[in-house]
Amino acid sequence: MSTSSYTNDPARPEPELEEAFDRLVDEGETRLRRPLVPLLVTGFLGGIDVGTGVLAYLVVETATGNKLLAGLAFAVGFVALLLARSELFTENFLVPVISVVAGRVGPGGLARLWTCTLATNLAGGWIMAWLIVTGLPDVRATAIRAGTHYADLGVSARSFALAVLAGAVITLMTRMQHATESLGVQLVPAILFGALLAGGQLFHCVLDSLLMFAALVAGAPFGYADWLGALAWSAFGNIVGGVLLVTAVRVLRVPHRVAEERVKSS
After folding, report:
1. Are 76 and 56 in contact (CB under 8 A)?
2. How confident is the model at residue 46, as a pLDDT?
3. Which of 9, 35, 147, 191 is exposed most, by the fewest CB atoms within 10 A?
4. Could you tell me the pTM of the whole model?
5. How far apart are CA 217 and CA 147, in angstroms?
6. Contact 212, 147 (CB under 8 A)
7. pLDDT band, residue 178 (cuts 50/70/90)
8. CB within 8 A of 10, min separation 6: which ones?
9. Average pLDDT, whole number, for the chain?
């Protein structure tokens, strides 16, 4: 279809939106059909990569006492995720979800992707947390304070709002990165949104789990049962923020393409 035909039909969105939708659907299908071993390895490496951000966060906060500077330092973890092509659980709230909505893959594929990625993110992250606290004992007090903060949030309107914001922030970052093929431009949202996530102390299930793991290794006043409760509540809020607040609204911009894809897939 020519650009002029788009222009003459006000009911259709700009062609750029449809092209972006098509790219997301194709990439999402690739992710959802990824074999199990590469899926597990990618998620595990994602936990390792974001763990480098936690390392930077704890070192800088210990040295400066400034959470905003520590948040900026944490962004190295998101840069690592981008350049190393690993994957974070919350990065899968846009691309694979759109493929499922388009009918390319069923919900079971999404559940498999989410479960495997979250589990392996946490496994890789726990190893990094142990290494950080064991190798750098000076950060123990900082780790305990940071982890205890998230353990103490509990189940409340405030913690839910922080989790929704975290999910929305990461999903928006993902959308911005998929708007360009320039690696240099993709680095900008990785740095800015990574700093916002950590510096703003948003309730992100993987990042906060790693900080809680570090606190637990350092001798925190809470236990793994408290971490598990925080994980479940923050993951729920992250999904609401990423899938409902960001992805669903963007899908509504191209309803005709969703309908066309579902017809083709049926």
Report:
1. yes
2. 96
3. 35
4. 0.90
5. 10
6. yes
7. confident
8. none
9. 90
By CB atoms closer than 10 A (0-12, 13-18, 19+), residue 73 is buried
Residues 6+ apart with CB under 8 A from 197: 71, 74, 166, 169, 170, 204, 207
Reduced to 3 states (helix: H, G, I; strand: E, B; else coil), residue 65 is coil
| C-alpha to C-alpha distance for 245 and 140, rounded to whole angstroms | 36
State the Cα–Cα distance between residues 257 and 138, nearest whole angstrom: 54
| 105 neighbors 29 (Cβ within 8 angstroms) | yes
- Compute the average pLDDT of residues 198-204: 96
Calpha distance 210→97 (Å, rounded) = 25
Q: Which helix (H) or strand (E) is 200 found in, with range?
A: none
Count of positions (residues) in the chain: 266
Query: Is the CB of residue 75 less than 8 Å from the CB of residue 88?
Result: no
What share of the chain in percent tops pLDDT 70? 93
Cβ neighbours, 10 Å, residue 131: 15
Q: What is the 3-state secondary structure of 153-179?
A: CCCCHHHHHHHHHHHHHHHHHHHHHCC
Q: Residue for token digits 């949104």?
A: 193
**Structure token digits, residue 1:** 């279809």
Across 36-51, b (16+ Cβ under 10 Å) vs e yields eeebbebbbbbbbbbb
